[in-house]
Amino acid sequence: MNAIVALCHFCELHGPRTLFCTEVLHAPLPKGAGDSPGQGEQAEEEEGGIQMSSGICTHSPAEGASTESSSPGPKKSDMCEGCRSLAVGHPGYLSHDKETSIKYVSHQHPSHPQLFSIVRQACVRSLSCEVFEAEQFGCPQRAQRMNTAFTPFLHQRNGNAARSLTSLTSDDNLWACLHTSFAWLLKACGSRLTEKLLEGAPTEDTLVQMEKLADLEEESESWDNSEAEEEKASVLPEGAERRELTKCPTGSSLLSDCESWQPRKLSVFKSLRHMRQVLGASSFRMLAWHVLMGNQVIWKSRDTDLVLSAFEVLRTMLPVGCVRIIPYSSQYEEAYRCNFLGLSPHVQIPTHVLSSEFAVVVEVHTAVPSSLPPAGCEDDQSLSKYEFVVTSGSPVAADRVGPTILNKMEAALTNQNLSVDVVDQCLICLKEEWMNKVKVLFKFTKVDSRPKEDTQKLLSILGASEEDNVKLLKFWMTGLSKTYKSHLMSTVRSPPATEPRN
Q1: What integer is the mean pLDDT of 421-429?
Q2: Beta strands at 135-136 and 102-107: parallel, antiparallel or unpaired
Q3: What is the pTM of this model?
Q4: Which end of the chain is more exposed for a tag (fewer CB within 10 A), N or C?
Q5: Is the pLDDT of residue 155 over 70?
Q6: How many C-beta atoms lie closer than 10 Å to residue 224's C-beta?
């Protein structure tokens, strides 16, 4: 928290004056400042992680020598004992918070001209009215004043010379005590009030992940509540419990829940670019097309780590809400249960699936020893022993236009001037762009129920009127978060009330 605490006083001779202020410094101290006490300086004991010392600068703007016309403080001739706090030449006070590396600096006036102007304005307003409330200065984002008024006390002795606050209190250490108190106040407020930078509304992936986490927590609580009943259940045969733990919960709609049950190793596929180099351009395009369209992607291999690595890479092409993975199963699972399915080589896939245009199968065979890995592959030591065969009931023709996002994705993958990290960021931007189109289409068709003619015009405006783009948008619509959908529905059902016209 950035704030400044100031003690102000109304001088009978010179009007409103700032007596003492403490500010926070996160940046290095100004020129002439020192972090440790120097000659003639005293370091007091640490209290609450803050160490105080005097002597932070060689001069104070409060003393404003006539040679320093740029000083923001009043000139020496415009001050009396009653409106002066620190003596001429006093270096001020410095406290260093070792925990946060924050410095608390006290002097009669802030050293920065802009801060001096703000404090001066607050001083004049505080002491020139009888009603004291929280008040904002011209820019609400820059400053807010909170002031407290005290009953005025006499500053003059026998109606003659003005008296200083140290003389009135008979306490030579008054300003050091005030500095310690002000520094503690700023530290205490800073520990409770923090500034947060919001970079915009959460993305759909973030909302979906939060919903999945909430579902997992709710499911774990239900498991805890049913432990007593499970203890009363009959004892399972030997080895049955172990098989049950390694089985993936295929009935669950959560994302990759069973992946956390498997031991994780180093990734076999390093990135989408690496997978494209391994599979080849045409096979990868066919696989990527089916992934983006929401068709079922089946990998058959003995190497479970290879299958998991492939799914980890391919899932980055889709919104989180569109991903349903069964990483490894001993039997075929229907497409409505998962769009990524890993199978052992001996599992039989139904004939209607093999001939379907809504499925693609990647079979991993042991390669012939004399065969060489595809040219241009990076680190293919672990993949040189495999041969990948990609088949589908509806092969994607090389001259087919395909969805726009696939073409842009391939352009980024083939651009060798872009690093893998840059390609990943490009993919994130592309997914956000098309998820925004999905939101517009959902609002237009599902919420507003607009006619088909208007929908076609909207798709043309969105640049998604082609058949593949329309299919992609409809599939990605299933990945919208429940939060977003319920928000739209509640807004439509309960429109904001408008004031009646006279």
Answers
A1: 92
A2: unpaired
A3: 0.54
A4: C
A5: no
A6: 9
